[in-house]
Amino acid sequence: MRAIRAIRFYNFGSPTTQLKLEELPTPVLQPGEVLVEVHAASINPSDVKNILGVMENTTLPRTPGRDFAGVVVAGEPNLIGTEVWGTGGDIGFIRDGSHASHLVLPVAAIQPKPQNISMIQAATIGVRYITAWLSLIEAANLQPGETVLVVGGTGGVGKAAIQIAKWKGAKVLGTVRRESDYSIVETSGVDIVINLATENLNSAVLAATGGKGVDVVLDTVGGSMLENSMLTLSPRGRLVAISAPPKEAKICFDLRDFYHRELRLFGVDSRAFDVTQCGEILAELNPLFETNAILPPEAIVTYPLRGGIIAYEQVHNRTNVSQLVLTTNM
After folding, report:
1. How high is the pLDDT of residue 312?
2. In a domain? residue 273
3. Going by DSSP bridges, is the β-strand pair 83-86/68-74 parallel, antiparallel, or unpaired?
4. In-domain check, residue 276
5. Which 8-state DSSP code applies to residue 181?
6. Which secondary structure element, helix H or strand E, spans residue 148, and what is its range?
7. Residue 100 has pLDDT above 90, yes or no
8. 40-59: per-residue pLDDT in tens?
9. Mean pLDDT over each residue of the chain, to the nearest integer
10. Cβ density class 45-82: b for 16+ within 10 Å, e for less
11. Are residues 22 and 87 in the same domain?
12. What is the model's pTM?
């Protein structure tokens, strides 16, 4: 096999100045490893933050990229030819990631992708849906018939969470910041849209729940929104936080109100789950995609690997609201 192609960075900084497309020697597989020919790999905001140096524990030089879909081409004979998908909090950070023509993975991480979605669609699932699953299913233990508030319903994790909550049998409220975003969350299946530009969050939630409040909040925004979100919870309600804006990493809330209402607060970090652990969650998500119980993102824009730096800059500058995917061997 010829040398592999990979986007690399040797120092932290802006994607334009630090990313380079290079050729690397063909990897030498160790026992228990396979080589995946990457067909598609999405670019997530965390990938950009990794280049900028605001993520923890990244070792350099490094090939970035968490999410991927491709085909096993070397390693365990019984796995060769298997179409796979995956993501991980280790790949792209402490081991080379998916923004390359090929990716070395442990055999235990290999998960067949859903047969009814394309490579490009499969490459958009990882970070978004695993974070939503960890938040709603594992942390909050969402139950059928409960009511969920998704703060940041237009984001990737927010839209995934809306679908997972509806599959679970919950009623879902989702927030937007402008009227033009209504259609984005409505297509995800949300029951009630709250426009934070014109509505008070707590008043709108109480009106939508008959004064009861919600059972679960997934706050994808963080900062001051967390305190506002806590006010919307019913007694013994659960709030899951997954993000902290750089300028609002520290917040305050009414501790007396917190314990009197017996609220629960959870933090979820998908980076704490390596590619093998994420594979176990994808195995649970697989049948949901194969039965169309949940659906992959629709707004996807693709770039060839050689256009990766341009794509990174678009994610960095938020000049494209679609999910950006690098196509490497298609």
Report:
1. 96
2. no
3. antiparallel
4. no
5. G
6. strand 147-151
7. yes
8. 999 999 999 999 999 989 99
9. 94
10. ebbbebbeeebeebeeebbbbbbbbbbbbbbeeebeeb
11. yes
12. 0.95
